[in-house]
Amino acid sequence: MTTSDGVRRSGGARTWWALLGFGAAVAVAAAVGGLGVRGTSEEYAGLTQPDWAPPSWLFGPAWSLLYALIAVAGWLVWRRVGFGPALWAWAGQLVLNALWTPLFFGAGRYGLAFAEIVLMWLAIGVTVALFARVSRPATALLLPYWAWVTFAAALNYSIWQLN
C-alpha cells in the first residue's frame, strides 16, 4: 500500500515474509560464495599475512552479523519504497560479495580478488548513498559492512603483496 505522500507501507504477514526473503537472498549469496571452497581456514592460516591480520575464527561470526545487517537494511528500504534503484544497487553489491570468496580462496587469485573487492566497496558506497535517501536506519546498518569490507580490502591487498 502506498500512502498519499508516496511512502510505501507494508504490513502484516507479507512484511515478515519479505524479511525472510531478504534473509534468504543474503544466505544464498553467502552459500554461493562458499560453493566449492573448502578448507578456507587452513588456506588462510597458510598464507603469509600482515601482523594485523585477524585469526580465521573471527570471520564466521563477523560475517554472520554483517549478513543479518545487510538483510535487514534491504528489507527496511523495501518497506519504504519497494524494489527500485536502491535495491538494485543492494542486489549488485550482494552479487559482488558472493564472487569474492571463490576468487580469493577457490582460485587463489589474490590480485583479481583485490580488484573485485574494490568494485564491491564502490557498489556498497553507491548502495549506502541510495539508502541514505530512503532510510537512515538502513543506511546505518550498512556502515559496519562497508567498514569491514574496507578492512578486508586492505587485508586482501596485503596478502596479495606478501604471497
In words, what does this structure look like?
There is one protein chain. The protein is mainly alpha-helical. It has one domain. 76% of the residues lie in helices and 0% in strands. The protein has helices at 13-34, 40-46, 59-81, 85-106, 110-132, 136-162.
Principal-axis shape equals elongated
> What is the alpha-carbon Rg in Å?
17 Å
Helical residues, percent: over 70%
Tell me the strand percentage band: under 5%
**N- to C-terminal separation?**
54 Å
What is the β-strand count?
0
Integer average pLDDT? 89
How many helices in DSSP terms? 6
Uncertain segments are: 1-7
Q: What's the number of domains?
A: 1
Determine the structural class based on helices, strands and strand pairing: mainly alpha
- Helix and strand run: HHHHHH
| Largest sheet report | none
Set down the secondary structure blueprint.
Layout: H1 13-34, H2 40-46, H3 59-81, H4 85-106, H5 110-132, H6 136-162
Helix pairs in contact: 1-3, 1-4, 3-6, 4-5, 5-6
